[in-house]
């Protein structure tokens, strides 16, 4: 080889490669020229060239392609040149075309790819499952779902895609069968057919009652029978109902019975279509359910009823009766009433202000009206008017009523008012009786809130808009205002003034871009900015004129528009479409008349929609009112003379029901006969039956209506009021409000309205597709085919990549020497690679997204957040408002089951979402649908159930048929009819003492076919008018109400006015009205007789003369004797004339004077013990009570503890929990000791079940528990509840879901720093030290987990918190914290750390066994703090046997320091003490069974009893009534010592409970709060107040420390002659002056959840001087709820009334 070639090619391999490239013309020209020359000149190169040609020939033969070589001149083939003639033919270089470079490799690669593709496809297709049988696919679309339509459009197609194609949609005719199912029960069924295009319609009967969660199941079979059956399930809108709830009276005394009735009618027709299951509950003043006060059952003829007897110990206050639908047919209905001691007034008084509010300088105008209880206006009698503002008299006037018993009051308010606390009192005196009517003057100071409601929903640019508005004060109450609407530059554009109930209307033409605001001119000094909504353009404006239309009258209105628009006017009445009309809106005013017929009555919604949108888009909306013509009329058949009766007389009444035409008609009646004077004690006018169903049930805040029934009258004034009402309160769909307050959260009202109208987000037509067995088969088949296709694509791409790689290598060999060819090859490689990568990629990604879409509803829902499309600013404004409204509604919409959970495939979305994210297509059969279906629906229908034949055979074997069985079962479920007919109580026939107020109650009285029914009852001894109230309904949908009267009169009458309660030492100047109702003069002899505790003063008899018709008041004085014991005493007044006589007996309660003192001496009795009693010599005579109690078992401890807790003021979660927990402990102990006593267990379980229902009512809406169930939840209290709930699970069924969510909520309150958060908005603060709260929460959590058998859970989930707990405890000397921490660490098996803390705890124990913490989680003090700490130490020591002696000593101290009535201090202390004692029960050694326990004084037995043979019976042993003997001893000696003796007993726990009233207070200096109370008002020079006057109680609660205090109680005692003004207490509560209040006799009990450091809580409330005399009230006091033994007392208030 020549030198040049040696330098260029290192070896022969490189030379051969170059020669091969030369042959294929892949070298550049210079290199090719050199090689050709070497071939000619170098034999070695020529030899290699010959080998190269042979190799090329072999390759060509393999490819069956001949090699085209042309000889050169040298006999060697040379590409592209002529062959030299002297070279051998076979050795000439080849001259080939360039196409051969590409053609051969490409053909080879293609053949290989085809073969590989065939093999791959054949392999995967052979693995596919068999193709399922073709089936019919069903799509069901709800027509007009917004109006709960029961019409459904059905489309049927073939799942295999074959068949007729219409518009690209494959259709097939099919046979349809459908059924309405509810919980697998068929309610209705039918058949239908589709047309040749596969379209059909199913219409359900309009009268079909559809319960909640009912479904329409449609099954389809191809008409030719070639396709298998398939089905689809569609959820149905339930039948909407309304319920009217009534009680017999508005006010009750503790111990009386509340009768109640509910009427549930179908909302659209008012027909009693369905009997529904209802639960009634009673809610106390704190918002908690009253234990045991619930009832469940099934209505009959749409009527439910029942009766609750209020416990005699129930606190006074506002109670609420709640009716709940157990199957969701109607929203909760509530009815409030009062519980308190009261006296029925003798006058029926009304005092009405002419406006809803007044400002400084305004003239107040009010109308007063009065009539006697027995009927007759109080004509020409004296009235005294007194007006006060900020406790200063601003107006006094004496006058007389008119002949109609009325009086008009007018006075002017001061121009400078500081607080705005005003009262107007009217004292009316007819000579015999004097009564006072007091009402708060509605004075408005400060901020005013105004909401604006443009008619239709928006302020529209350039058009005349009517704008409705409502004004409220800071408490949300309607007020009256005047003002002007101003533009941005202050120019007046409109004036406004409220018309009724804080509502009004004005007009203006707004301009786009302008901003409008309201300037309030009256009341004065209102400076907050009130803005109108922003102005939009191109929307229509609706003007409905008067807004109230006669029955059957078309709805006339004007629609103003600035643009041409195709619109749809839709009229809906209570969810039913009553009219629909297509209109063409032109610029300007478009008058319209929409016929609605008589079907539309009550509140009607008129909506204008843009019909060019699909579906039609709501633009504006308005509520109007259509009067109802159809109604029931009820009358009493007896004549007016027949309704005038005498006391005690038996009475029969006949009721006649007629329709609006006067024709008799059958009906169902609810009848009540009640003392009208008792009914008038409630100033709130309740809506009657027609008002409720037609109006107030359809609006947001019916409580705002001062006189709701007025709105239903036929006057023009009432029509205007209804128009204002519906213009301001009736919105369903659009957002209302001002700019600074656009969305007022009327949560409770919105919940109610949404339950009636359904979810607005689901208001567009929604379609549902088949998701049965066939669809599942087709889904699996298609998924398998898609999977095979994806694998074919994937494997083909891999194979193609390998083939292309080889192909490119072969091409690259030939292109190596050409730069341009290399570039082309690289581009070809890239293009080919992209082609291969993209082959099927789009389909693959789409299939993958479909598969991902089917994964979960949550994942697919998360992908629905695409940004909205661009829109015009005004469109954005409109959409934002609508969206905001929907969001507000969505927050409160009732929870419903997802269609996916019910086996449904929802194929279309809400149109608003569709507009936002664009249309999305879904695969047939629901592949990738957002709500991918499951097999739950199919599984539901495949559940084993009794067939119809099975049921028939079963019934036949029992001698029944299906109808009789159904009737029997329903009858068993129905409410028993709680009817009551008064029977006159006859004791002494000459004395009136039966003063029953409810005489008759019949919730379900059915008339005959002629509409007649009769009732019978006895009158009581009251001289009064009894109101006959009747509510009537008929199957036709007619309803009606009636109010009649029966009068009970006497010609001669004695009527004393008794105080409700007095104190020993009081003087009662008893006013007695002596009435001559005849037309003749009479001489009257009268006398008084009273029980021994009441001593008449002066003469007990007297004689007087009465002129015809005269009424005279005589005062007869009584002294309440000092030293009298607590008791009820009676007073009898007798009067007689020559021919007539009357006697009446009344009772009152007597309480001892002084300051109540309770002392408890506890100890352990072994055979005998001496107990010295330290009772002061000056205790109040008659007040001493002494009782000895013994507790032979831990169960007795628990039961006694419950009794002690029940004696405390009650109402919050912690008190309820403390009452409930000991029952759990007692039952657990009986289980543990195998000593169940049936009687005790039954009592405990009964209380436990009732308490559980009350406990869970305190759960906060946002989870967790709080004192009164108000957000935010309280961490420590929730942990305490969780611990109790887990213990309760061992003895009763407790909601696991509730326990789980409470624990989840608590875990979510961790702060990430080893502790727990405390919401800064806490309404109750237990402890100011965070580490105490952390320790308590961790202890309660660990105790709960131990009770649940998951002790490791706390250790695993709360390691950081436990580490922090251990660290803090190790550095603390607080026994309370150490006890909590040690118990917690032992619970989670961190025993080494726990025992270390237990060792430290032993060092902190006092010699007597107790421990005292530095603080507690409830910030308790005194004995309660010691008790809580010691109890926790017992619980901690009990977890390790080593510390048994320490636990014994601590438990002994707990028993020895029991407080009165079996308790151990505060509620928290009592619960922890009982928990410790029962835990320590096995260490108690008591041998007392059957022993005789004696109480001896000076060696004489003064009481004895036997300890039960079964000491585990749970009964505490009590010897009471020892006070009299001990008081006698104290009269002789200054000291008394009792001896307790019980032979053979060992370690028997006992207490000696002593209670008495002291003449001087014993306030505890350690009590951190104090209270003052005094009377303020108009007193004369002697300090007396006139009867009938109003006084003010000024009470102040002081926190005397610089630390915040937990729950605090202040009890204000009122003298006997004063009566609190309940309405004012309710107003103060609403204003937030205290958290809530209770009434107990003469005491008003106020509660605060927390008291700020050094703060003062001032309360001023009014009282009325009702009865002359001199009275002393109970002593007022204040204390911390959790340190009740430390009280601060204040001097009792004293008043003398003349």
From TrEMBL:
<dbReference type="InterPro" id="IPR002890">
    <property type="entry name" value="MG2"/>
</dbReference>
<feature type="transmembrane region" description="Helical">
    <location>
        <begin position="788"/>
        <end position="809"/>
    </location>
</feature>
<keyword id="KW-1133">Transmembrane helix</keyword>
<feature type="region of interest" description="Disordered">
    <location>
        <begin position="895"/>
        <end position="928"/>
    </location>
</feature>
<keyword id="KW-1015">Disulfide bond</keyword>
<dbReference type="InterPro" id="IPR047565">
    <property type="entry name" value="Alpha-macroglob_thiol-ester_cl"/>
</dbReference>
<dbReference type="Pfam" id="PF07678">
    <property type="entry name" value="TED_complement"/>
</dbReference>
<keyword id="KW-0812">Transmembrane</keyword>
<dbReference type="InterPro" id="IPR036595">
    <property type="entry name" value="A-macroglobulin_rcpt-bd_sf"/>
</dbReference>
<protein>
    <recommendedName>
        <fullName>Alpha-2-macroglobulin domain-containing protein</fullName>
    </recommendedName>
</protein>
<dbReference type="InterPro" id="IPR009048">
    <property type="entry name" value="A-macroglobulin_rcpt-bd"/>
</dbReference>
<keyword id="KW-0882">Thioester bond</keyword>
<keyword id="KW-0472">Membrane</keyword>
<keyword id="KW-0732">Signal</keyword>
<dbReference type="InterPro" id="IPR001599">
    <property type="entry name" value="Macroglobln_a2"/>
</dbReference>
<dbReference type="Pfam" id="PF01835">
    <property type="entry name" value="MG2"/>
</dbReference>
<dbReference type="InterPro" id="IPR011626">
    <property type="entry name" value="Alpha-macroglobulin_TED"/>
</dbReference>
<dbReference type="InterPro" id="IPR050473">
    <property type="entry name" value="A2M/Complement_sys"/>
</dbReference>
<feature type="domain" description="Alpha-2-macroglobulin">
    <location>
        <begin position="998"/>
        <end position="1088"/>
    </location>
</feature>
<comment type="similarity">
    <text>Belongs to the protease inhibitor I39 (alpha-2-macroglobulin) family. Bacterial alpha-2-macroglobulin subfamily.</text>
</comment>
<dbReference type="Pfam" id="PF00207">
    <property type="entry name" value="A2M"/>
</dbReference>
<feature type="transmembrane region" description="Helical">
    <location>
        <begin position="101"/>
        <end position="123"/>
    </location>
</feature>
<feature type="region of interest" description="Disordered">
    <location>
        <begin position="70"/>
        <end position="97"/>
    </location>
</feature>
<feature type="transmembrane region" description="Helical">
    <location>
        <begin position="821"/>
        <end position="838"/>
    </location>
</feature>
<dbReference type="Pfam" id="PF07677">
    <property type="entry name" value="A2M_recep"/>
</dbReference>
<dbReference type="InterPro" id="IPR008930">
    <property type="entry name" value="Terpenoid_cyclase/PrenylTrfase"/>
</dbReference>
